[in-house]
Amino acid sequence: xxxxxxxxxxxxxxxxxxxxxxxxxxxxxxxxxxxxxxxxxxxxxxxxxxxxxxxxxxxxxxxxxxxxxxxxxxxxxxxxxxxxxxxxxxxxxxxxxxxxxxxxxxxxxxxxxxxxxxxxxxxxxxxxxxxxxxxxxxxxxxxxxxxxxxxxxxxxxxxxxxxxxxxxxxxxxxxxxxxxxxxxxxxxxxxxxxxxxxxxxxxxxxxxxxxxxxxxxxxxxxxxxxxxxxxxxxxxxxxxxxxxxxxxxxxxxxxxxxxxxxxxxxxxxxxxxxxxxxxxxxxxxxxxxxxxxxxxxxxxxxxxxxxxxxxxxxxxxxxxxxxxxxxxxxxxxxxxxxxxxxxxxxxxxxxxxxxxxxxxxxxxxxxxxxxxxxxxxxxxxxxxxxxxxxxxxxxxxxxxxxxxxxxxxxxxxxxxxxxxxxxxxxxxxxxxxxxxxxxxxxxxxxxxxxxxxxxxxxxxxxxxxxxxxxxxxxxxxxxxxxxxxxxxxx
Length: 490
What we know:
The protein is mostly helical. It has helices spanning 2-47, 50-53, 55-73, 78-97, 99-105, 107-118, 121-124, 126-145, 148-187, 190-193, 195-214, 219-243, 252-270, 281-319, 323-357, 393-403, 423-444, 469-475, and strands spanning 364-368, 371-376, 411-416, 452-456, 477-483.
């Protein structure tokens, strides 16, 4: 009897408590959704440059949102959270009302800022960038104050500073490595011991600098000249180092080294290899020897396989109970071995043909499993751009020649960047560049669109260190991958 009385009493107490707990949980969930919505609105307004057009309103909204997020995570009062969110909404509404007039007053400055960002000015020209940002903030505050004349003046000042930052960034990016290598060459007394090579490098660097001064949009040509100048400065430094091993310090040493390089080039040409002397004679010689050794190893492997086949035939004749049956078996095996040798020879011949299409500074051709990879180091894009310039047409024509050797195989174009700049931006840029190459090949070849795909990997798949300019240059690349599965030569 007593239990029957207690049960209704418990129900009377617990049911209202549960009913109260449910609305509280629902309210907390609702507030969390409101915080997320406010954060999304803030991010959207940032994409519309309201952090620049109305910096004080936007900063207030950011601060109040941070307060609301902190209260939410620590279990603070829902009333206090909602008060912060109301402040966020009021501040963003005030900023949004200024969007149209702000974009009109700051139009040139916003455009110049975008160009400077594309040139990585925060990285390559940090002082000029910070100065320009300060002027832009002043212009935004004038917009908030309703002072349009002063806003225009400050915006004009910011635009000029962003343009200077952009130009400085491009010069540092394009010419910086060559200039550093020039200083190294001068420290090695290359002006005295390798004057012709140094003079040629100076000419190339001067041409690159002149192009940038006259037309910043022609970065691809300037970059190409600067990279060639960098190679020549390295060459000059190496020649000077060689000259140090002789007591005779005149230019006769340079002539002697250049003559030795010519002789080595003749040897390399006979095995289809083009050496790079920027690192000196010894590395180039090792590269040539490696090519010759590879050819000898191929020949040795074929001779070994032929000798093995002959031994099989000899043993078959000596030990077979049925000569005709054994000969038939060996004949079949010989056909299989011959067919396999022919397939290997066909594959190696095809790879050598494709490698011969490209200069070493243009591309590297290699195998990875069943993937033939054409690594296009020489395919250069303007900084922060996916536009294919005419300078790249000849290299892409060579790519087309190579792809025509595999008319039925699937093709994947992959884009890669170095680690400089924003990771998300690099990912998007790599995707755009890979897609640009895909569209170019589709437009210039009779390809089924389903056969060729494009992917971007941003900075996630480096093949060299990002701590040096040389490593970053290797990481900025386009890879053309051909799937050899099912190919008769694979």
